[in-house]
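Final report, Chapter 2: Outcomes

The project's central promise was a pipeline that accepts a single protein chain and returns its three-dimensional structure in a standardized token representation, suitable for archiving and comparison. That pipeline is now operational. To close this chapter, we reproduce one record exactly as it appears in the project archive, with the input sequence first and the structure output second.
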Amino acid sequence: MGVITGYLCLAFMLFLMLKFLSRKFQWKTVNAVLMKFHKYAAALFLVVSVLHFVLVVSVLRSRMPVIAVSGSLAVVFGVLLVILCHVMKDRRKELVFHRMLSVLIVCMAVIHMVFYWIDLGRYQMKIQHMTIDTVDLAGIADGEYIGECDAGYIYAKIRITVKDGAIREAELLEHRNERGAKAETIIDTIVSEQRIDVDAVSGATNSSLVIKKACADALKGN
């Protein structure tokens, strides 16, 4: 839902920018039509922006700081814009602040989206180049091993118990994800098949890969 609301915010912002351009370049017919929906689009933009922030706040720590800061400022400026439009009585001053805050919202939104796509590209690159090393269980001493893998958008930390050259238990200590929760069942498959590179859980391929990588790194590092 966080991604969906993000793109909805983009759609409403583009609509509002079109309204500005139609007035700027005196497209009278277009401006007249857009004017009828201007306030509704602005209200929806603000509501969806706040909803987007609420939905993604739990994963902001895995994003670049500039993404969180720019997104938060865009929401704050949007709230201020709505407040000023209802409080300020001087039409001329209201128009000045309206334009200033609108520009700030657009700037923050653009920064937010650009760095989000950069961050997303880095995450996808990590996933594409992630490999699972072969682990010889016979050469692993008895004991408990902790491994972790951080791909940015997905993080996994796991504890594996090895005894007599076999994986006796695998416990997922932490799994930070967005839509890959069902990948957590892969640890049961790893134990039952006694190997790390098992088939990914359908619909949660990336989370499956990160969990397997955490398992492999735990055993390879000890």
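Archive annotation: The longest strand covers residues 166-176.
This record, like all others produced under the grant, will remain available to the consortium after the project formally closes.
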